[in-house]
Amino acid sequence: MTDYTIIGKYRNAQNVRELITAIRSKGKTCYDFTDKPAYPDNPDAPFEEQMTLLEEHPDFLNDPVHRYHYERDLNGLRNANKVILLLPAGTSAHIEAGIAFGLKKKLILIGKPEKPETLYFIFDEYYDTADDFLQSS
What we know:
The chain contains 5 helices and 5 strands; from the N terminus they run βαβααβαββα. The protein is globular, with a radius of gyration of 15 Å. The chain has a 5-stranded parallel β-sheet with strand order 2-1-3-4-5. The longest helix has 15 residues, at about 65-80. The chain is an alpha/beta fold. It has a single domain (about 1-135), classed as Rossmann fold, CATH 3.40.50. Helix 4 (about 90-100) links the parallel strand 3 (about 80-85) and strand 4. About 40% of the residues lie in helices and about 15% in strands. It has helices spanning about 15-25, 45-55, 65-80, 90-100, 130-135; strands at about 1-5, 30, 80-85, 105-110, 125.
């Protein structure tokens, strides 16, 4: 089990990694979905290029790279005590938040939503910034 997993955009990897580093500096464990390349065939490419290559796959449902990311990240959710959604986040991260809610994980939202959404009530804690969260934990 890990203390936390963070869900968010791969394109927001720098902020995700900074939060993970800060959490780990407090002696906590945290799953890091950004520690693997988005596109393993070109692991040294910039994040944006990797994401573009991944998103352009013509048959993602039958792609082993997509399946690998899915299985690894789902295990990250299952094995975490608490799940943090770091905004901005895309559709996949919001789906992961729903899965975490279904798994009865404690959910933490960091960032200000773009617009009001009633389902943000699934979160147990809300913080405007990562610093606000880190000061409280």
